[in-house]
Each structure stands twice: as C-alpha cells, then as structure tokens.
Amino acid sequence: MNSSPPRRLRFVKVDFAPSCGCLGSLVALVSDFCRSVVDDADIIFAFRMATFELTENMVKYGCGERATLEISVNNATESPELVLTAINQASAERIKDVHERLLAAEDAEDPVAHFDKLVRDTLNSPSESRLGLGRLRAEADLVLSHTITGNTASICVKRRIFKAGTGDN
Amino acid sequence: MGRNLMPVKKDGYSIEANERTQLLSVVLNGTFDMTAAKDLQAFFDEVGEEIRATNPRQLNIDVTSVYYLGSSCIKAFVSLTAALKATLKHPTMHVLTSPHLDWQERTFAVLARLAPEMVVVERMV
Fold first, then answer.
1. What is the ipTM of this complex?
2. Model's pTM, two decimal places?
C-alpha cells in the first residue's frame, strides 16, 4: 500500500519581552521563514506587515513581561497555509477594546470599506492610529481570527500557500 | 527649501524636502514603522504650514525608497491629506510609488479614496 510520508513540522516560535528594540529582529525572522516556505513576494510582504502591526500592538498596548510570536505552516488543510499567531497580555480595558476591533475587522463584509471607515475615524483620535488590525484584511488579504482568555489575547492571521519556496522540502 | 523643512536623518529612515516655484517635493527613504511616526507627523505638520504660507500648486511625496509604512505612519499621511483638503487653495498631492513594490499602491490608495479630487497615486517608471 502506498502512502505519502507525513510532512514535517515547520514553525518558529519566539517568546520575548515586548519592546521597540526587538521589532526589526522579529520581522527579519518571520520574513526569512516565509521566504523559505513560499515563493511569493506578495505573501511574504503580507506576513512582514502582519508581524510589524501585531508586534507594535504588543509593544504599545501589552502589559505582561512576555509575549509570543509563532510563524508556522499548517499542512492539515487541503492546501497548506502560512499562519502567524501573536499572544500577549493586556489590561481588561485594552482586551475589551481589541476584542471589539477584531470582531469588527473579522466580520466586515467589505474589508476595504471597513478600513476606509477606520481611516476617517483616525482623524478624531489624537494619538492612536487604530488602523493596524483593519489593514491586515484590507491590504494584505489575510484571514483574521482571535481568541480571548482572561487577560490574554491570541490573534491569528493566515493565508494559503500556492507557490512553495525552495526550502519547502 | 522652506525655512521650516529641516531634513530628518535617523537610523533606518530619512525625510527631506525641496521647494521650487509652485512645487514642494518631499522624499522619504527607509522603513517607517512605529519608531518613525513621531518624526513623520512633525515633518508633515511643517509641510502643512509651509503649504499654507506659500500656496504651491503641487506637492510631490516620493515614497519609491520606502520599504515599509506602518499604521502609525499611515495616520500621518491621512492627517496631512485631511489638513490640505480643508485648505481653501489646496495643492494636488502626487504620491510617487515604486514599480517594484506592489504593496505601495495598495497602501497609498487609501489617500486617493479619502480625497479623490486632490490625491494622485502615481507609479514611477
């Protein structure tokens, strides 16, 4: 009986103390991983953007000493997916706010129209842009989901891979 | 060069401007993540003041060498666009994008949607 060998796990998981100083290193790490598994500049940029936006949110709004970022390939689906997950803790007020903003972004029938509304709204927000989560769907065509457990938010973005990279052996 | 528009050079990014008759040009280089947002907002505030003072017909913003623009910096672009749109004699704003960086057109298209009569996103060749 022929059966294809199980595909090996491919992921990188980083625990870190959120700070501006680690932003560049995390973006480089995720970008390198993406380049090794997918040959598509658009997808690589999408995950680069997501790493910047999710990590910046952790730095700006997180309250714990540790945060987690994981980039992986999910082979369990019909066609493989690239998946980025960001986990961090925040105050109850921030968790409620991010939950509401994520639900709005996830449920938006038209992600571009939703982002345009956020852009108009940002003009009334003196300091925060509040644009980062909205642009993940509107500009990067990423599938967005999240879970909240207590004061911990886990945000996941993913996209299907159609062109495997040279390191995908 | 306008008297207020002093160039910004930091590790990872730079912003500079030059002014000719009826044309104000701004050139951005590098990675504009959250660490660049404050400088970009301050520079664009000065650009807004300069435009109100000198009334140029056109503002060019060259982003061809921008490798990333974060949401905090998008806010700076959006604020500049809205501020110029509100002026009586606003210039046309041309955002010059790279033919090699596809994301730029998607990112800056939001400005054209915000002020379609004023903003042109132009891919350089």
1. 0.93
2. 0.93
